[in-house]
């Protein structure tokens, strides 16, 4: 008799590969996080497109109940739309819900027993928010994650912490991410246009 893998476990297995057991994944798994290509986008859409749509329609509320499944739901709302709907407004369609789940989960200490890689992506929606208070929470959360992490993964978390501080600086300056303006049909201020001439932004 075969054990059936739950859909949320499939999400975690795809995104983290060996990271849940190791605490931090090996290099091949990390490539898809921030250096994904068109093939990765197509695979995510093929494998998880229907799950993303269900999550966006708030049909996966049962995933909210325990830490690992909530982590999977956050990934489905925060990360996967950025692949499936790349360079369109829908890339951000799960952001608000993902941030809400992250904040609520932190208040309930749901990250306490997650591996470091899971803790980092649990709070990642806060780095994507156009809200300074959420960025402050993201930075302090990542600082705490790094402090409590095993020595072997502290360096990996450092890169995320540096990025979080840089994202927060942009929000403090503009109140939003100027590199999203074009996709979202927003007019850029003179200051934002100057910034975009000298800063590549952060993907989506």
UniProtKB/TrEMBL annotation:
Superkingdom field: Bacteria
Matches recorded under InterPro entries: DUF924, TPR-like_helical_dom_sf
SUPFAM superfamilies for the chain: TPR-like (SSF48452)
Protein's recorded name: DUF924 domain-containing protein
Naturally occurring in which organism (per UniProt): Alcanivorax profundi
């Amino acid at each position: 008799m075969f054990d059936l893998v739950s859909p949320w476990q499939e999400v975690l297995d795809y995104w983290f590969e060996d990271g849940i057991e190791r605490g931090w994944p090996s290099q091949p798994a990390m490539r898809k996080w921030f250096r994904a290509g068109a093939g990765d986008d197509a695979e995510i859409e093929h494998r998880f497109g229907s799950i993303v749509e269900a999550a966006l329609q708030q049909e996966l509320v049962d995933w909210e109940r325990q830490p690992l499944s909530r982590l999977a739901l956050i990934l489905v709302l925060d990360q996967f739309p950025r692949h499936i709907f790349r360079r369109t407004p829908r890339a951000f369609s799960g952001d608000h819900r993902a941030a809400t789940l992250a904040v609520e989960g932190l208040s309930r200490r749901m990250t306490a027993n997650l591996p470091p890689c899971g803790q980092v992506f649990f709070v990642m929606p806060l780095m994507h928010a156009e809200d300074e208070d959420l960025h402050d929470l993201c930075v302090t959360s990542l600082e705490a994650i790094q402090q409590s992490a095993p020595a072997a993964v502290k360096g990996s978390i450092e890169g995320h912490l540096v990025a979080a501080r840089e994202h927060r600086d942009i929000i403090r300056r503009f109140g939003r991410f100027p590199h999203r303006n074009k996709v979202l049909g927003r007019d850029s201020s003179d200051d934002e246009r100057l910034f975009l001439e000298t800063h590549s932004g952060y993907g989506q």
